[in-house]
Design goal:
The protein is mainly α. The protein has three helices and no strands.
Length: 81
């Protein structure tokens, strides 16, 4: 996070990695300009994977807490169109 050169370089590397793994992903370089932009892209991709049913789901004993506190979906596969 942040605007210092090392942070910007890491975001550019992350975006390059996403583009390499998801050849259909067409987003401008500006998505690496700020941490908010890159976070939004990663959140959208994670949402896509979640709608496809390809994330870690809460176990039965975690359901109450997940409903109350929310759940962070960790992808188990890459998103596809």
């Amino acid at each position: 996070k942040g605007d210092k050169p090392p942070c910007c370089a890491v975001r550019r590397d992350i975006l390059a990695g996403l583009r390499a793994r998801l050849p259909w992903l067409e987003v401008p370089d500006s998505y690496a300009a700020t941490d908010d932009s890159l976070d939004a892209l990663v959140a959208a991709l994670t949402c896509r994977v979640a709608t496809q049913g390809n994330t870690v789901r809460p176990q039965h004993e975690q359901l109450d807490a997940a409903r109350r506190e929310g759940w962070i979906h960790i992808p188990t596969t890459l998103p596809h169109l």
